[in-house]
Design a protein that fits this description.
There is one protein chain. This protein is of the alpha/beta class. The chain has two domains: about 210 residues, Glycoside hydrolase/deacetylase (TIM Barrel, Alpha-Beta Barrel); about 100 residues, no CATH class. Helices cover about 40% and strands about 20% of the residues. The protein is built from 13 helices and 17 strands. α11 runs parallel beside α12.
């Protein structure tokens, strides 16, 4: 069943990736090899869900077991393990003693969206600022620019100002090394030098050290990934497939490579694949309007971005680092119950094994509430109280809202009661 999810991921999209990786002397093993690798990604993802389900089966404490089952729903949706977790949860929740209980789930994606998309740009091509940035900002998007230092310091007169301005406007500046080498051919010492020096220079010029990396030529191996893990929260590769909601390796996140001969329908099919699978689609973009590797006309990108904007009610379009943070936090977050009563619930969202100063992306939570709750206020720490409406879903009332891990106590308190049935709709997150 899971294999079928990977079949419609755009077979002809393999050609640009094969051409790109061919420059690095890396063969893809033909279309069949790429498809097999894509299926392997989802197969390993499903296996992780099965392992967590087996772990839940060994837990005797029903509350702790419920927590693990809800973790499966958050991190491994659309897998056989998630379907089994739903069945077991219904039985466990029904079997619990009557009285107030806290049932919180982290949504797979921000704002309870169905899939995630990141627009990433390689090589610090000036035309990306001239053409891509206005197209994104007109639609409210922000992108990730993986720059290699020499492209700016030697090719653009050491002019970092335009790239620093992008960071100030909410775009991400990621690392792409100093000289764009084939990292797999370098010694450990030289790999570290390329990455650490890149981080140092970008940090000085931009004002923020990169959190994420794009491997030059999409080339990497275990040795390269091991060094990258010590410096970044995630790294992007190639391979033309949609990443599962919880990638098996955040230092080998696949991406699609649009090239000059890639049609608009092909590019848009990658978006459809993300929505079908509930995964993370990453565009690896290079040239535009005659500048950069495999340039594509501006009009084609404009239409592609329009396609994303038309589906923004279902898609979370965010920078690469924002999505990577969300995934890491979703996997690590644990709910600590403080108080549950008939009028309010108080709890904390804790995350002990990640750097809270780096992983500060708000998570969207789904809280099950009594059926007569209509409107609640949500407070966390010193933040301003905001209201959120409760929604009627298949198995009861719920409310969606954002919270930051390790951000202090979260208090959800009812301010309006009512049992009228509402049609389920997209969660209203972060309403003031």
């Amino acid at each position: 069943m899971l294999v079928l999810l990977c079949l419609p991921l755009g077979i002809s999209a393999q050609e640009p990736v094969r051409a790109y990786r061919a420059e690095a002397g890396v063969g893809e093993g033909g279309i069949e090899g790429v498809l097999a690798r894509g299926r392997g990604w989802w197969r390993d993802y499903a296996k992780k869900g099965e392992e967590l389900l087996a772990e839940a089966g060994l837990i005797h404490d029903p509350i702790e077991r419920i927590h693990i089952l809800r973790k499966i729903l958050s991190c491994y949706p659309q897998t056989p393990a998630a379907e089994q977790a739903r069945v077991e949860l219904r039985g466990l929740v029904t079997a619990q003693p009557h009285g107030p209980q806290l049932h919180v789930t982290v949504c797979p994606w921000k704002d309870n969206k169905e899939a995630a998309v990141s627009l990433t740009f390689d090589d610090a091509v000036p035309h990306q600022i001239k053409y891509h940035v206005p197209l994104m900002e007109e639609r409210g998007f922000r992108g990730t620019f993986f720059v290699f230092v020499n492209a700016i310091e030697r090719g653009q007169g050491d002019n970092w100002e335009p790239w620093a301005e992008l960071a100030q406007r909410g775009h991400e500046i990621g690392a792409h090394t100093v000289s764009h080498p084939r990292l797999v051919e370098l010694s450990d010492e030289k790999i570290k030098r390329e990455l650490e020096e890149s981080n140092r220079i970008i940090g000085e010029r931009i004002g923020a050290v990169p959190l994420t990396l794009a491997y030059p030529y999409a080339q990497h191996n275990e040795r390269v990934r091991r060094i990258a893990r010590g410096l970044y929260i995630s790294a992007r590769s190639g391979s033309s497939t949609v990443a599962p909601p919880t990638p098996v390796d955040l230092y080998d996140v696949p991406s699609f490579v649009p090239a000059t001969n890639t049609s608009l329908s092909e590019m848009n099919s990658w978006v459809d694949a993300a929505l079908q699978t509930g995964g993370w689609m990453v565009d690896m973009i290079h040239g535009i309007e005659g500048q950069g590797w495999q340039p594509i006309p501006r009009e084609r990108y404009e239409a592609h971005f329009d396609y994303l904007a038309e589906r923004e009610d279902r898609l979370w379009v965010a920078t690469y680092a924002e999505v990577a943070k969300y995934i890491r936090e979703r996997e690590a977050a644990v709910v600590d119950t403080i108080e549950v009563g008939k009028d309010r619930a108080v709890f904390e969202l804790l995350m002990s094994d990640l750097d809270g100063g780096i992983c500060d992306e708000p998570l969207t939570l789904r809280l099950e509430v009594p059926f007569d709750w209509a409107v609640v206020t949500v407070e966390q720490g010193e933040s301003i109280s905001r209201e959120a409406r409760c929604l009627a879903e298949e198995h009861g009332k719920v409310v969606y809202f954002d919270a930051v891990p390790n951000g202090g106590e979260i208090m959800v308190e009812v301010v309006e009661r009512g049992v009228q049935i509402q049609e389920p709709r997209e969660a209203e997150v972060g309403e003031e």
